[in-house]
Amino acid sequence: MAYVINHQCISCGACEPECPVESIYEGVMQYNIDPDTCIDCGICTEVCPMEAIHPEM
């Protein structure tokens, strides 16, 4: 199950460099996670100051 970034994202960019497989990318309004390349490691959740990253349900 991939992780997703919700509307609480403030586009700070803290998560992008932490992703070991470069699944996180900057979108128009917020950062996004590519579900096809996400390896479900959860590292991004640890660095997000807004707690905007959660497992996809």
Question: In words, what does this structure look like?
Answer:
The protein has one helix and four strands. With 57 residues, it is mostly beta strands. It has one domain: 2-Layer Sandwich (Alpha-Beta Plaits), CATH 3.30.70. The protein is globular and about 25 Å long. The model has no long low-confidence stretch (mean pLDDT 97).
* Percent range for β-strand residues: 15-25%
- Low-confidence region ranges: none
Can you count the beta strands?
4
Ends: how far apart? 8 Å
Order of helices and strands: EEEHE
Helix content estimate: under 10%
Tally of alpha and pi helices:
1
Based on CA atoms alone, the radius of gyration comes out at: 10 Å
> Which descriptor suits the 3D outline?
globular
How is the secondary structure organized here?
Blueprint: E1 3-5, E2 24-26, E3 31-33, H1 43-47, E4 53-55
Antiparallel strand pairs: 1-4, 2-3
Give the structure's gist in a few sentences:
With 57 residues, the chain is mainly β. The chain has one helix at 43-47; strands at residues 3-5, 24-26, 31-33, 53-55.
Give short descriptive properties of this protein.
two-stranded antiparallel sheet; mainly beta; 57 residues; 1 helix; Alpha-Beta Plaits
